């Protein structure tokens, strides 16, 4: 049975890719919602459930962003 070995460069590039995609995703979401708010197409007069959904979704985005730099730092220390 063959064993596949990923080099440190491959793992570092993969971690950088996921960090970049996390930042792009967060920037796209913030830009999209802020543009709607700035253009007056959105208001905060919505049911509580919508606010709860937004709180948890943005919390998930924040958690995702905080975990990614740690992956890059761990790979840099182990190199």
Summarize the structure.
Helix content is 78%, strand content 0%. It is built from two helices and no strands.
Blueprint of the fold:
Elements lengths: L7 H31 L9 H31 L1
- What's the pLDDT, averaged over the residues? 79
Q: Number of helical runs? A: 2
Shape: elongated
Largest sheet data: none
Describe the structure.
With 79 residues, this protein is mainly α. The chain is elongated. It has two helices and no strands.
Keywords:
79 residues, mainly alpha, 2 helices, 78% helix, elongated
């Amino acid at each position: 049975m063959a064993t596949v070995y990923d080099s440190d460069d491959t793992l570092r590039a993969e971690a950088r890719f996921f960090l970049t995609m996390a930042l792009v995703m967060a920037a796209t979401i913030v830009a999209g919602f802020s543009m709607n708010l700035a253009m007056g197409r959105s208001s905060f007069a919505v049911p509580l459930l919508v606010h709860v959904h937004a709180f948890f979704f943005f919390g998930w985005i924040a958690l995702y962003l905080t975990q990614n730099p740690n992956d890059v730092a761990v790979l840099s220390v182990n190199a």
